[in-house]
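[Primary structure, fold]
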Amino acid sequence: GTGITLAADTILNAGSGAININGAVTGDDNSLALNTTGTTTIGAAISGITTLTTNAVGTTAINADVSSSGAQTYNDNVTLSGAARTLTSTSSGAIFFDGTIDGTQDLTVATGGLTTFDGLVGSTTILGAIDISGAGGLDLNAAIANAASLDVSGATNLGANVVTTGAQTYTGTATLSTDVTLDSTGDQNTDDISLAAVIGAGGGTQDLILDAGALAQITASGSITNLTDISIRDSGGATFGSAVTASNDFIISESAGDIIFNGALTAGTFTQTADANTAYNLEFNAGGTITDAV
């Protein structure tokens, strides 16, 4: 389609009709709002806008990349199609998803601002690789139910579970605001769960379950603190680089590799429930305090 240049801040209202963007949009430092209770299809690249906003009812199909200087706010359900998709804010604007996100494509969100997922991710299809790049980090308030992998460059608020077929990497501190399970289901030796520091929010009543499958590694380079229970449900081995503290239980259900503590372990109860056919070594290289061992 023919390209479009915005001459002013622009609002497109279509009622219940479709909005189809078939030509590249150049924002010329203007904002763009797309309002319909039907389907909005972004079929060509959008760039040079200040902000992008969609209304709360309807669906937005992102079939091309979007770049803004400020925030992008998707108030409706989003589907990805075509090639891998990149959403960019060049001046650290927040990128917010209020609804579900589906599609089999990779999704890169590139911003120094905060990325927020408030709706279920991968609710009907397995999303591709999710890459939250930039220092802004991720605020996860609904589960990532199905995705190929997750890589977060900044800090993460984990307010829901994460299930991927491949690796999960959390470069910044992960703060748990509820009980959380991180599950990598691919059963390949590349499906590692890699953490920096982990902390429980508030009074530290949260539980953390880690499951990398029988072949992949679990690593935490920073301290894990202010949690109630910490569980390794399955792994090919785990290494904790700093102090680990669970006010109640540290539980190992299954592991095909050694569990190594390079920082002090403090736990009320240390429990191993693995069957007799599972063999692994435990290494405690910095001491700690365990009230009871089972």
